[in-house]
Write a structure and sequence with these properties.
mainly beta, 5-stranded antiparallel beta sheet
């Protein structure tokens, strides 16, 4: 199914997350780096992307190169989820240059040590070879090992306060943090000290392969059992109920929603993920209280001209982002062409 075309609905079109697995405190202290070794564990569109960038909650620094190679070391800086600054970095020794039978150069990274250190060099931590540092977050480090995401204090790196399995990821949500896992259909919210706020099971952020972010403080999410959409705020509170057949991100206080569609379930990833195709129905525009400012009509029908358009996740037609001047385009999501433009105010 062509879910990637759903990007054409809005700059913050249905976001792809992965809902998260249940956080847990480990029963045993994880092994220290020096005692064990581990095996190795990947026109409209421009306007929408600009809108996404404008809504990003954390602006990571672009003035510095996050990756560098110097003095025989590979250095990967990681951003702080709250400030966007680079405070910590992962460092691995590049290893001795060797040559294959064809004379090509290579380095054997499998045997070289890795460590984490503060960018200013005031603190250094020896770590396991395949630990992957992803972010810092205030007084915490967030790293991944063998598919599991860990949250730890630097002085107790292998005594994590939380862990999330099976492809979970974490991002900033306003003043809070969100952990999500698309395949397991969980979305969990924490404050900056990783105290739990809200935990939603059977919910995922819609779509895939799109950067996760809120817009206007709201995030569209899908109830996996029914295929209906609602909206969360940055604390994980359901502010608009699961009543829409498809939904776009908010922009300038408004969002497009589909009602009256038939939701046809289908599976992906060898039957492990159930999604729903929205066929038929009509699109409208709502405000942040859920009131329609542009009522669904036949003019804004989710009509498909062929089987390929019917296969688009989120519908064949849809609204783009509402601009600051109150105009919004109704588009054919197959090719991104503008069918007509409405003015809300």
């Amino acid at each position: 199914m062509k879910r990637s075309a759903y990007l054409l609905l809005t700059a913050a079109a249905l976001l792809s997350l992965s809902a998260c697995s249940i956080p847990k405190k480990p029963e045993e202290t994880l092994p220290q780096a020096e005692s064990e070794t581990y095996p190795q564990p990947s026109s409209i569109i421009e306007e929408m992307l600009k809108a996404q960038e404008a809504e990003t909650e954390t602006s990571f620094s672009e003035e510095e190169e996050a990756y560098s190679f110097e003095n025989g070391l590979e250095i990967q800086k990681v951003p702080d989820l709250i400030t966007g600054e680079y405070r910590w970095q992962s460092v691995v020794e590049a290893g001795e240059i060797k040559y294959d039978k064809f004379g090509g150069e290579y380095r054997n990274y499998d045997v070289e040590p890795r460590y984490y250190e503060t960018v200013d060099g005031t603190e250094k931590l020896d770590v396991r070879r395949w630990d992957n540092l992803k972010y810092s977050c205030g007084d915490y480090l967030i790293y991944e090992y063998d598919g599991t995401l860990y949250v730890s204090k630097p002085d107790k790196l292998y005594e994590p306060v939380l862990s999330f399995e099976n492809g979970s990821d974490i991002c900033r949500a306003g003043d809070n943090l969100m952990v999500e896992n698309f395949h397991n259909s969980f979305v969990y919210f924490y404050d900056r000290d990783f105290n739990p706020l809200n935990q939603l099971d059977g919910v995922r952020v819609a779509g895939e392969d799109v950067i996760t972010e809120f817009s206007d403080g709201y995030l569209p999410v899908e109830e996996t059992q029914t295929g209906k959409f609602g909206y969360l705020d940055t604390s994980g509170t359901l502010v608009l109920p699961f009543q829409y057949d498809a939904a776009t991100n908010f922009s300038n206080g408004y969002a497009g929603v589909l009602v009256g569609a038939e939701l046809a379930p289908y599976t992906e990833d060898s039957g492990t993920v159930t999604l729903h195709l929205a066929q038929g129905g009509q699109w409208g525009i709502i405000d942040k209280q859920g009131a329609f400012v542009l009522e669904p009509t036949e003019k804004t029908g989710n009509t498909a001209e062929n089987e390929e358009e019917k296969s688009l996740y989120g519908g064949a037609k849809g609204f783009g982002p509402v601009r600051a001047d109150g105009t919004v385009d109704f588009v054919n999501r197959m090719d991104g062409s503008v069918l007509f433009t409405e003015k809300l105010y």
